[in-house]
Amino acid sequence: MQPRNMSMSGVVDLAAVKAAGEAKAKAEQARAQRQDAGADAPAASPLVIEVTEATFESDVLQRSAEVPVVISFWADQAEQSKQLNAVLERLAGEYRGRFVLATAEVYANQLLFQQFGVQGVPAVFAVLAGQAMPLFQGLAPEDQVTEVLDQLIAVAEQRFGIVGQEVDPGTAPAQPQEPAPPRPATPQELALTAAHDALDAGDLSGAIRAYRNVLADEPANAEAKLGLAQAQLLDRVQGVDPQAARTAAADAPGDVQAQLTAADLDLVGGHVEDAFGRLVDTVRRTFGDERDTVRVRLLELFEVIGPDDPRVVAARTALARVLF
């Protein structure tokens, strides 16, 4: 697939002047503290780390005050994301500490996946002084990757005063073998890219059609399932007055459509447990076709959050109790 968002445009907008000044002060303070402690040379630290939701604060946010952190979202079944990780890992060694690579497996880190607004993998972001910015999505030629990394490093220094400290070659990760040249994209991959592009452009009806086309050929494609669920959710809440919808749901607990709309708004607003709880309660109160409609919508919302999320696991258990 061709990379998307292959640009550093928008970085200045994301990095407000106040935040840049604070970042410079933090970076200078950290360097002064190391000097006061007698640490003339920085202690060896890994240039490639595997980040989780539990370690994100320390491994990414805190570290981003001293060095640009590049986050690569990947999935085991997405071969291109693993190919890109191999390139980024090698480049992390070649750049010798001017950036740190953090890899995040999407199914193990659903909250990070959602918070960064990832639409598919591979997807690469950067964090500078605690501020996230998109770099690109899709498998990219190495010369384009290095161009973006060079821009990122320049912005980090000029805008934030953040300069990663050079690491001794002995502490750099072992050089992996040169990855095989990327294979040509398959028709299914091209269709998935078209679906992602439509979603990025706000063409929700086009994205829905495109994701359905992918699933018609590959019913088990997890990336297409997630994209379809997201596009359908956003399409349903377009133009909805949140206050009026919530009032209607509160006034009419038996109105299935009102509860479905309120649950969609709950999920978009980040109130995941409320959305799931509302629909489980609605399943409990309904029968026949209405019950099945609510059950199917709840399963669609599970797709948006991800099957391994503990809130989904808990809601599945609650749903099973109601149904059986």
UniProtKB/TrEMBL annotation:
Family to which this protein belongs: Belongs to the thioredoxin family.
PANTHER family with a match to the protein in the record: GEO12009P1
Keywords for the protein's UniProt record, in alphabetical order: Redox-active center
Entry GO CC: cytoplasm
UniProt feature, compositional bias: Pro residues: 176-185
Protein name, per record: Thioredoxin
Keyword Cell membrane set for record: no
Taxonomic placement: Bacteria, Bacillati, Actinomycetota, Actinomycetes, Kitasatosporales
Region (Disordered): 166-186
InterPro entries xrefs: Thioredoxin-like_sf (IPR036249), Thioredoxin_domain (IPR013766), TPR-like_helical_dom_sf (IPR011990)
Species assigned in the record: Actinacidiphila bryophytorum
GO annotation (BP), single: response to stress
Keyword hit for Flavoprotein: no
Gene Ontology MF terms in the entry: protein-disulfide reductase activity
Domain Thioredoxin: 35-154
Signal peptide: none
